[in-house]
Amino acid sequence: MRQVYDQSSIDKYLFAISENDVNALKDLYKATKNVLFAYALSIVNNRQDAEDVLHDTYIQVYAKAKNYTSANKPLAWLMTIVKNLCLQKLRTNKQNINLDYVTWEKEFAFDNRIAEEEKRLLYECLNTLNQEERQIVIMHALTGYKHKEIALIFDLPVSTVLSKYNRAIKKLNEYVEKEELK
Amino acid sequence: MKDVEKIIRDSINKITPDDFNAIIADLPEKEPKKKWYSYFKPTYALSLALCLLMIFSLIGYSNNNKVFSTISLDVNPSIVIKANNKDKVLSVEAFNEDAEKVLGDMDFKGSSIDVTLNALIGSLLRNGYLNENANSILISIESNNQEKSKMLETQIVEEINDLLSGDNLQAATLSQLLVSDDQTKELAEKYGITKGKVKLIEEILADVNNIHSFDELVPLTINELNLILQKKQIVTNNISSSGEASDKAYIGEEKAKQIAFNQAGVSGDSISAYECELDYENNCMVYEIEFVCDGIKHELDIQAADGTVCLHEKEGHYDNHEDNYNHPDSSSINKKDYIGYDKAKQIALNSVDIYQEQIHDYECELDDDKQTMVYEIEFKANNIEYEIIIDAFTGDIITSHQEKGHDHH
User: Fold this and answer.
1) Half-sphere CA count of B204, side-chain side, radius 13 A
2) Which of A27, A43, B181, B358 is most enclosed, with most CB atoms within 10 A?
3) Are B4 and A169 in contact (CB < 8 Å)?
4) Are B192 and B95 in contact (CB under 8 A)?
5) Helices and strands of chain B, counted as H and E runs
6) Given the DSSP bridges, would you call strands B69-74 and B136-143 parallel, antiparallel or unpaired?
7) What does pTM read for this prediction?
């Protein structure tokens, strides 16, 4: 099931966290970890780094929640934290963010929850799409937000989000079709 | 057709870690808020009196432990030095991981500011944070005494220049006297950077031609920020600058120009209105190159580090309509040659077999899709959202997408 993100409850969690409420942090973690992990993955292109970023994100949220002021954009606030941590990571690692499939597959060597088909499509999504395209697809797939809302988050015109989204989905569909024909 | 979004969603849900305990274990400790009187019990009265006595007798000593000046050094590592009124160091704090590496296990408590600076600059050089490709350093000084701040500023800038020239490096220093305000403090805490860097970014944002946002500039190194300041000739109000920021890590304007010409398939003789500027775009430093050739305006972004072309935009005429649209000014394109909103709507509806009466929330926008002009059409019908993009000249459908909507009409 696609979860539609309810921004007002994220807002409430953040205010409770600013009062040092660890339970609220746990609720926030449950509600947002999937989308923030996907967002981190779309920037760092590497599972281990995305996991580290996710972990550090909630630590920072706990430390900085008092700086949060509601502007009806709590998810965007969280995403800024994720983005900064990712950029820090890329900068310190100075690694090539182009990922080859062998390395990608190794990261899942002991993970039998994820099927071969899923592994390949996710790889395709991270690699053939450019960063903006994959961020838009991932946000659309995980948050259930409309293109208009995604445009607000990324500060892009709706038309750009739309055309990038369509182009990206088209590329992925072409890939799936090609795989099915094999 | 498989639902690719569902596959992505499912796989992300499966691989996202679920380990809240690891987060709990690493949370910084915070004391729950207590009312001050909850600490006060009669039995504490005696200890309180004793404490007060000690405090008064220690006032002489405490002056030595009081922070009188704060000096922050930003390169990419950010380090904050706190010193007392006798210029003895009380603490040195690493602001990021890079800075931790620079500090290592050095302990500066009680050392003089000179000695501390000397050791820190040495370590910055050894660890490769200051070199001929990146020679900028930002020094920000905050002190209770304005005169003292100024003295420290000159002294430190001189010392840094001396230290770097000993290593055959030309330093590019930016220095400023900080007056702390709440907004700066808040921003510094929010982004985990020094107040000095906040002020530097604010100076760039204050420039009339600025197109950047605060978020965007936070991850840049001081050398990159200094390059933006210098190449765009931004006049700073509170920051003094000396020395030239190094751009040796980049391919150089001449090479970027060649790459741009090759990419556009033009020669240097046939162009006019050439402009080149080093700037920061989409998370990297780029040479922004603009020129006009055969009535077409070209805009290219060439990655400064390796010469990759990340953007090539043409304005003036469109490939399929060269005869009609040979004007450099895109506003002169004759709107009559578009198929028009009504026709576009008709094509869109026909393509999905829907009647005008069935639709609602209809939106149509004329937009530039880089290659050509398009109509972007969105509407809902029968609880399905349609998004169709149509070529504005030919009426061809470029993309068509449908999705089960969330509406209840």
Assistant:
1) 26
2) A43
3) yes
4) yes
5) 12, 14
6) antiparallel
7) 0.45
Strand pairing report for B136-143 and B172-177: parallel
The answer to whether A67 faces chain B, any CB pair under 8 Å, is yes
CA end-to-end distance (rounded Å), chain A: 29
Instruction: For residue A68, give both structure tokens.
Output: 């949060």
Q: What pLDDT, in 10s, does the model give residues B53-80?
A: 666 555 545 567 788 888 989 998 889 9
Task: Give how far B55 is from chain A: nearest CA, Å.
Answer: 32
How far, in Å, CA of B199 to CA of B191, rounded?
13
Q: Does A4 touch chain B (CB under 8 A)?
A: yes
DSSP per-residue letters across B37-81 = GGG--TTHHHHHHHHHHHHHHHHHHHHHHS--EEEEEESSSEEEE
**Structure ipTM:** 0.89
Nearest residue to B370 via CA among B295, B331, B322, B318: B318
Token duo for residue B329: 């000014």
Cross-chain residue pair B13–A34, CB shorter than 8 Å: yes
Residue positions counted in chain B: 409
**d(C-alpha B74, C-alpha B79), whole Å:** 6
- Distance from the Cα of A181 to chain B's closest Cα (Å) equals 12
User: Distance (Å, rounded) from C-alpha B405 to C-alpha B367?
Assistant: 24
Task: Give the pair of three-digit tokens for residue B119.
Answer: 């050791």
Residues B218/B201, Cβ–Cβ less than 8 Å: yes
Tens digits of residue pLDDT in B139-198: 999 887 888 888 888 888 888 888 788 777 888 889 998 887 888 888 888 888 888 999
Rounded Cα distance between B26 and B298, Å, is 52
